[in-house]
Amino acid sequence: MKKIKKHLKTVNMNYFQHMYLGWKIGLELILSFITIIVHSINPAWFEYSTSKRIERLYNKIIKKR
Fold it and tell me: In sequence order, which ranges of the chain are alpha helices (DSSP H)?
């Protein structure tokens, strides 16, 4: 329990904010997985979608620190 509280304090979030962000990022990663699989089958589709989404996620996570 101490590790959880310490982590939440470090990221300046409460439990539900942290859970919401985790679910949101998880969903984004699932969508990225789907688009990259489709792109591997047909390179003309989702040319930059996955890389842009991952870049946005990275920037969002870094800003939360």
Answer: 2-10, 15-41, 49-64
Amino acid at position 53, single letter = R
Q: Are 64 and 21 in contact (CB under 8 A)?
A: yes
Q: What is the pLDDT of residues 3-47, one digit of tens each?
A: 999 999 998 999 999 999 999 999 999 999 999 999 999 999 999
pLDDT at residue 65 tops 80: no
Token reading at 12: 């300046």
Residue with tokens 């329990």: 1
Angle between helices 2-10 and 15-41 (to 10 degrees): 70
